[in-house]
Amino acid sequence: METKKLKDIAELTFGKNSSRMTKEEQENIYNVESLRQDLSYLGEIKPSEQVGIQAAFNEGDLALRLINPQAAVVSPATAGSILSLNFAKIVPNRTKVDEWYLCYYLNEAEDVQKQIELSAQGQVSTIKRLGAKFLRELKIVLPDLEKQKELGQIYRNWLIYRHQTEDALVQQEQLVFNAIAKECTND
């Protein structure tokens, strides 16, 4: 295993302030709902081979929320969305890093959380916001590429399972509450 800086394994792009966007761009902005949609996307995601607009997400890119950090692999459902100030676009060099492994590492690795906490020491604010310099220098532990793909697929499968389980719980909750409401009205 080796450790690399994020800037050495991926291209990073940072969004612009929405006040500098056109009305059309503002209507198609990538937001927290887009991130949730990508994290729960059940279909196949095929990384884009062509270079798109730098300020827009392509399928297979990573979207990283900069405030209270969370990453997702961009799905076809949100591809084309415009990069805003609150997100970074990460285009992995797929000869060095698997996008699902990188998503796992950014979201779940204790090492990343430690790096974030160390960078935040001395700051007054309790809100974690990642800066461009910090992200470029972020250290990522990389097993060989085949192992990354294997681990990344396990993470993807877990995300799908979690989404399906959460949906089932919501449905069960509705059934229970409907039964309770029905019993209350029968008295």
UniProtKB/TrEMBL annotation:
Pfam families, A to Z: Methylase_S
Name used for this protein in its record: Type I restriction modification DNA specificity domain-containing protein
UniProt domain Type I restriction modification DNA specificity: residue ranges: 1-154
Signal sequence region: none
Family membership noted in the UniProt record: Belongs to the type-I restriction system S methylase family.
UniProt organism field: Lactobacillus nasalidis
Keyword field: DNA-binding, Restriction system
